Amino acid sequence: MRKEEAALNEVTTIQSLEGNRFHEDNVCNQCGHFGHWLGDCVFPDDSGYIKGCPVHNSKDHSWDDCPDARKMSLERKIMYLILRRRNKPAIQSNRPWIALVKAALQQGSEEYCWGPSVWTQEFAMEIIQGPKANQPWLDFNYGRQLISTLPKDPETMDDPGILVEKRLLWDQVHKPFPKGGEPGHSF
């Protein structure tokens, strides 16, 4: 999808909160398919994440760089990064989504964080590298199929108090390559 086309598919914060996320004319700027936006997409990139902004259905900026995300309440952040991502790949971020679960526990809002939760990068990669018949993004019907029909990551099935103790979940962050390219390669 060209950058000009992608810009036409971007949405406002209000649209992503109150609009019909699964309207047949919606175009996802992650996978390019109709019927959903990036914030609900099941189709990970080659690294096992969803890259872009789930608030604006945008690839022009990330969740970490979204000016609207910075101003959001904890509950709203949980909605975008956990509730809407249950049984789906994580939104790529430099901060682990499990930190939101910990904050919710500290504030007594853990009811939003019960498993099944977001896929780990490792689980997403297993599905990507596995048989095509097991790749749910090939035929998932957004808005009609329940997310409970998607694969469940065994690492994120526990209650919030147990999830925050799992070291693996705290490591679920985007680790950008150092300047000069891939690790071990310098230019």
Question: Your description of this structure?
Answer:
With about 190 residues, the chain is mainly α. The chain has one domain. It has eight helices and no strands. Helix 4 runs antiparallel to helix 5. The longest helix has 10 residues. It is globular. The C terminus is likely disordered.
In short, what is this structure?
The protein is mostly helical and 187 residues long.
Distance between the termini: 30 Å
What portion of residues belong to β-strands? under 5%
- Biggest sheet overview: none
Secondary structure class reads: mainly alpha
Q: What's the number of extended β-strand segments?
A: 0
- State mean pLDDT (0 to 100 scale): 88
Q: What is the N-to-C order of secondary-structure elements (H for helix, E for strand)?
A: HHHHHHHH
The low-confidence parts are 181-187
Oligomer: single chain
Helix fraction, binned, reads 25-40%
| Tally of structural domains | 1
Radius of gyration (CA) equals 16 Å
How many separate helices?
8
Coarse shape: globular
What are its keywords?
Znf_CCHC_sf, nucleic acid binding, 187 residues, zinc ion binding, single chain, disordered C terminus, 27% helix, mainly alpha
Layout of helices and strands:
Blueprint: H1 3-8, H2 13-18, H3 67-70, H4 74-81, H5 98-107, H6 121-129, H7 160-163, H8 167-170
